[in-house]
UniProtKB/TrEMBL annotation:
Plays an important role in the elongation step of protein synthesis. One of its GO terms (biological process) is cytoplasmic translational elongation. Residues 96-105 have a biased composition (Low complexity). InterPro entries: P1/P2_N_sf, Ribosomal_P1/P2, Ribosomal_P2. Residues 96-129 are annotated as: Disordered. This is 60S acidic ribosomal protein P2.
């Protein structure tokens, strides 16, 4: 027995992600080469609208490719994207050798101090007492 949601699933910000998610679910289920009908069945089972153009685009881009290799290539590309202050601190030890290692331990100590200060903010009261 399949349960159907009472309202439509919405992906307003990234509508193409539901197609990618359906593809990955099909692969996780053991279907190494899902068809458009397979993706439509998965999307329909949760009440999501299907967009034939997006499905065909995804299937054409992934044709004859191994999904694990595609994911690995994506991870490599994401590793080179700067992600704020943390990425700079990680890159510095690689170029400076072992000299930057103490700086990393100092930041860990600072984080521990901040956590301790945050716990003092509740003044001993709890929402569940």
């Amino acid at each position: 027995m399949q349960l159907r949601p009472t309202r439509k699933v919405r992906t307003a910000l990234f509508p193409e992600m539901k197609v990618v998610a359906a593809y990955l679910l099909a692969v996780l289920g053991g279907n190494t080469c899902p068809s458009a009908d397979d993706l439509k069945n998965i999307l329909g089972s949760v009440g999501a609208e299907t967009d034939d153009d997006r499905i065909e685009l995804l299937l054409s881009q992934l044709k004859d490719k191994d999904i694990t290799e595609v994911i690995a290539a994506g991870r490599e590309k994401l590793a080179s994207v700067p992600a704020g202050g943390g990425a700079v601190a990680v890159a510095a030890p690689a170029s400076a050798g072992g000299a930057a290692a103490p700086a990393a331990t100092e930041t860990k100590k600072e984080e521990k101090v901040e956590e301790k200060e945050e716990s003092d903010d509740d003044m001993g009261f709890s929402l569940f007492d």
